[in-house]
């Protein structure tokens, strides 16, 4: 998840999310959280057809952070408001459901190949 999406869900400013990461950088190895490079950001932006040319986020000052499931779990321990706790639970449940879907979808594809 992008840092801006995480911030929106947790009702925090993106800047505050990123400050928490920087202040606790040892808790966020690359498999938990990483920063996009310019090329990756350009590809990502090309995927968002609805992004307005002069809209917010078009030309950010900083490259965004991306959080994995583990990074979200680590971040949830650092954020203290009630919304953050509830959102963390929902996000973790969503990751579990996505994993189940991928596993089940993979099994279906494997069965189709066997036939």
Strand order in the sheet with the most strands:
1-2
Rounded to an integer in angstroms, the radius of gyration calculated over CA atoms is 17 Å
User: What is the average per-residue confidence, as pLDDT, rounded to a whole number?
Assistant: 81
Largest sheet: 2 strands, antiparallel
The coarse silhouette is globular
Number of domains: 1
Instruction: Count every beta strand, where a strand is a DSSP E run of 2 or more residues.
Output: 2
Question: What's the helical proportion of residues?
Answer: 55-70%
Task: Tell me the structural class.
Answer: mainly alpha
Kindly estimate the percentage of residues that lie in beta strands according to DSSP: 5-15%
Q: How many H/I helical runs?
A: 5
The separation of the N and C termini measures 37 Å
Poorly predicted parts: 53-57
Strand and helix layout:
Layout: H1 3-10, H2 14-23, E1 33-35, H3 38-47, E2 65-67, H4 69-76, H5 82-114
Antiparallel strand pairs: 1-2
Task: Give an account of the 3D structure.
- With 115 residues, this protein is mainly α.
- It has one domain (3-114).
- It is 60% helix and 5% strand.
- It is built from five helices and two strands, in the order ααβαβαα.
- Strands 1-2 form a two-stranded antiparallel sheet.
- It is globular and about 40 Å long.
- Mean pLDDT is 81; it is low at 53-57.
Structure, briefly:
By secondary structure, the chain is mainly α. The protein contains 5 helices and 2 strands.
